[in-house]
Amino acid sequence: MTTELEQPDPRVRRLKGVVIRFAGDSGDGMQLTGDRFGAQAAEAGNDVATLPDFPAEIRAPAGTVGGVSSYQLHVADHDITTPGDQPDVLVAMNPAALKATLKDLRPGGVLIVDSGAFNVRALEKAGYDSDPLTDGSLSNYILHAVDLTGLAVGATEGLGLKRKDAARTKNMFALGLVSWMFNQPIESTVAYLEKRFAKKPPEILAGNLASLRAGVDYGDTTEAFAVSYEVKPAPLPPGTYRHMRGNRAIAFGLVAAAHQAGMPLFLGAYPITPATDVLHELSKLISHDVRSYQAEDEIAAIGAAIGGAFAGMLAVTVTSGPGMALKSEAIGLAISLELPLVIVNVQRGGPSTGLPTKTEQSDLLQSLYGRHGEAPLPVLAAQSPADCFNAAFEAAQIALERRTPVILLSDSYIANGSEPWKVPDVSELPDLGIEFATEPNGVGKDGKPAFHPYKRDPRTLARPLAIPGTPGLEHRIGGLEKADGSGEISHDADNHDLMVRTRQNKVDGIEVPPLEVDDPSGPPGFGSKLLVIGWGSTYGPIGAACRLVRQQGLAIAQAHLRYLNPLPANLASILAAYDTVLVPEMNLGQLGGLLRMHCQIEPVGYTQTRGLPFRAVELAAVFTRLVNDLEDGAAALSTEDIKAIGGTGKVGRSELGSEKNK
Amino acid sequence: MPYVVTSPCIDVKDGACLDECPVDAIYEGARKLYINPNECTECGACASACPIGAIMLDLEVPKPERPFVKTDKEFFSKALPGRDEPLGDPGGAKAAGKIGVDTPFVAEFQAAE
Amino acid sequence: MTSADAGGKQLTAKDFSAGEARWCPGCGDHAILNNMRNLMPTLGIPRENFVVISGIGCSSRLPYYLDTYGMHSIHGRAPSIATGVSINRPDLSVWVVTGDGDALSIGGNHLIHALRRNVNLKILLFNNQIYGLTKGQFSPATKPGTITPSSPFGSLDHSFNPLALALGAEASFVARTVDTDRKHMMEILAAAAAHNGSALVEIRQNCPTFNHGERAVTADTSVPTPADGPIRLEAGSPILFGADSQWAVLRDAETGDLKLGRSTEKGVVVHNPRSTSPTYAYALARIADTEPELAPIGVYRAVERPSFDNQYQDRLADARAGGRGDLQDLLTGNDSWTVPARS
């Protein structure tokens, strides 16, 4: 492909970046199609960010708007952080998919529809009164009505496929066509399909490959697609890269941590969307001494993990919001036992079942405070799909070093999203090994040497761990309060007060890297007047929006929190250096409230809980307005102002424990 | 750490403890009751039932009463006067019936005035 | 086989003792603890390889008094925590200590799933038919109609039959013993320890404070009375009881149900805990429903079924047969690409 670049084909138009969305029925294979397109683009050296979006039901009623499944990709020749706001290209496999997603397509964008799926019945199901392909309502777009189903069936003729199975290869036809449009080689997809369908009847593979190739050929030979596009490879730093999804990155981060600690990895889990993929990934890795165990419920899952930790494993449990609620009593036990444990919460829309397949950041305060008693634990959040690897590795590192449960927050957006990930060199990963106790460290009441499980390391306040099977160190731990040092049951008031404070000090004492501010206009207090601070998956949209603001010649500062507990020591002083601190969040202002409490500042929130990530252009509009207001000497953005500039979120003080919106 | 019946029981044998022992481990000699140290589960029901405070954990027995720790043990481990075999661990006092004799120590015991 | 310390010294009950138990005087828990202390040194397992995990309740204090590795966890969850220990560490002997409230009420789900999986746990279910620690409310094992502080007009709950429940959950070893019979309990606990897979032992016990058993006295000699008990189950022997073995467990020729009757009648049952079908053990367990004071004691069922632990460890061993997977290979995968250094 690079050689072709040097001798450009006149029919090829180069793009800096493009946003493509595949949309269809949840049975149409849109996730696979999008995933393969992203993988092809990443292998071709593009930077790729993806956003799958699928219905909560496994099979919502076919052909309805509620059953539409889509997959959006942002492919660019430069470092990108979001899957894009508005698609430039939309592939709609049926009327319902068109109905559900057309509003997002950029005016003038390319629209490819499967005309074979536009029959009267399908139009009616999708709620169309007239056929949009013929009624002129799509005149704002470059419309390609292609009988994808019919062409796919034709391409597979003679291979022995049943009509239904032949029609199902239409997604591969669409992938072939779009791959041609963007000059992407399909070889890796061919290899992928060969593996995926290896155990199926041979005609299934043959049919899918035939449709894929027919799609490419169709683009090449059809006058309608006179011009194809090409996105140049992004200038990534040198290294080995891989297309990585957030949930897989978490699994890999944990496996790497166990490897570096020299311990087996033990996962206790119960299936829950959108965390289940971590269970799936880890279940495959048995040859890496990963022991995965599917328990009878969320409580048993963390129970088994606690048992595994006591037995000397690097123990992990993965879940989402409702599962976290069920685990909270056991998390309290793990805090009391002071055992290493990584708890992964892949957040979704709540409360209750909420929006199980949609993203949200609304479990921050649950993670920090959602337990009985004074129950502090470290909390950190991953900021992008590839970052999930490092975040999971660090969570395990803290858990092992401090002998504490650690909560790692991800969310549905980065769990299912993907981006190029620079594969780490294993020889450069830090050693996480800890020493288990093998000798008594105290003297018992009988004057003999004894093991005192709560005799702490004076620096880290971590307690010694003696695992069962170690002779002479037999001891009991449990949820009842223990005497400092000896670990005997203690109901003593002073001892309890000491232990409560010690557990808090242990977590507070974790060394967290200082918060860094990205502001080309100057250091805190000397550059921008506005600081935008976020946590977790908003990193991408906030960063993209800041870049858009800076492209207009305006100054804006960005900071992002990985550690939510403890917070970086320099946080308050950094925030105090700005006139206005804006906190965009996919909740009602949980971080905003936290900052007010910890830093005695009055941040401005920009919040939404719409199940989808922030759009960069929307954030950029809000940021721009605020920067301009600050230059004018006032920052009084109202909800009406937000509406006027096309925003969908709410602005104002954190809505938690505070007056309502200004 | 079984419970032990000490000197106040001698010639009193109130017997309140007999009904309380959940494992029937208290045996009746001629002058005193004896707790089988192997059958005792240390539950303490006997101690709280005893109206004269004669029963206590072996570790808590005061020095002057220490010989009773040994004599309760020997009541079962050594052949009693007039018998060829030690009593052993019969596994229940009711089935064993009244033993009717004491250890030589108890038989000759004189309470200090 | 017995346990010895590193210096070869024979361990005794004293070596397994960790402090004075704090249960009410007369509580059956004392007897169980005492028997555990005496049993453990005789099992040939090093002391450091015992792990005793409990939930919440009076019974669940037991690990604190045994000088082994132990954990006093949270209400009802001990089987799940013990599972995490046991499946990862086949070298350990893992025991669960639980009560009728802990195991049958709040922890019912974990109990049935541990038994279903046949995790290699020795589960001791202390059944005093009452919530003791919270001062005497009715439990799932309490007889209906029992007056307690939370059921001042009598409890309405139908009670669980713990053994029938365990058998329904496909337990491979199910037994009952009583706190007052030291010899019997020791035999049953030893049999449970020797079983590969889940072993559920119900230990019927007295709560002297909140559920002091008052035995019904009847002069009627045409039916067996509690005084004729207990009914002892011995593998291979007819199930006879009463001072003169005048009573027996009989099989009703028409219904196949088990009932109590005179040993001279037809259909005296010969006990077979290894019957492949659980139906017999289930019928035996149901006798406790109609004759609670005569609930048979002994091993109801003991069958071989692959333990979860063994299968789990076998699978791990198979997967690592060719050595542990290479982490760098895993991370790099076969779909990576290289961005060369720009010159």
TrEMBL record, chain B:
<keyword id="KW-0004">4Fe-4S</keyword>
<keyword id="KW-0813">Transport</keyword>
<keyword id="KW-0249">Electron transport</keyword>
<protein>
    <recommendedName>
        <fullName>Ferredoxin</fullName>
    </recommendedName>
</protein>
<dbReference type="InterPro" id="IPR054830">
    <property type="entry name" value="FdxA_Actino"/>
</dbReference>
<dbReference type="GO" id="GO:0009055">
    <property type="term" value="F:electron transfer activity"/>
</dbReference>
<dbReference type="GO" id="GO:0051538">
    <property type="term" value="F:3 iron, 4 sulfur cluster binding"/>
</dbReference>
<dbReference type="InterPro" id="IPR050294">
    <property type="entry name" value="RnfB_subfamily"/>
</dbReference>
<dbReference type="Pfam" id="PF00037">
    <property type="entry name" value="Fer4"/>
</dbReference>
<keyword id="KW-0411">Iron-sulfur</keyword>
<feature type="domain" description="4Fe-4S ferredoxin-type">
    <location>
        <begin position="31"/>
        <end position="60"/>
    </location>
</feature>
<keyword id="KW-0003">3Fe-4S</keyword>
<dbReference type="InterPro" id="IPR017896">
    <property type="entry name" value="4Fe4S_Fe-S-bd"/>
</dbReference>
<dbReference type="GO" id="GO:0051539">
    <property type="term" value="F:4 iron, 4 sulfur cluster binding"/>
</dbReference>
<dbReference type="InterPro" id="IPR017900">
    <property type="entry name" value="4Fe4S_Fe_S_CS"/>
</dbReference>
<dbReference type="GO" id="GO:0046872">
    <property type="term" value="F:metal ion binding"/>
</dbReference>
<keyword id="KW-0677">Repeat</keyword>
<keyword id="KW-0479">Metal-binding</keyword>
<dbReference type="InterPro" id="IPR000813">
    <property type="entry name" value="7Fe_ferredoxin"/>
</dbReference>
<comment type="function">
    <text>Ferredoxins are iron-sulfur proteins that transfer electrons in a wide variety of metabolic reactions.</text>
</comment>
<keyword id="KW-0408">Iron</keyword>
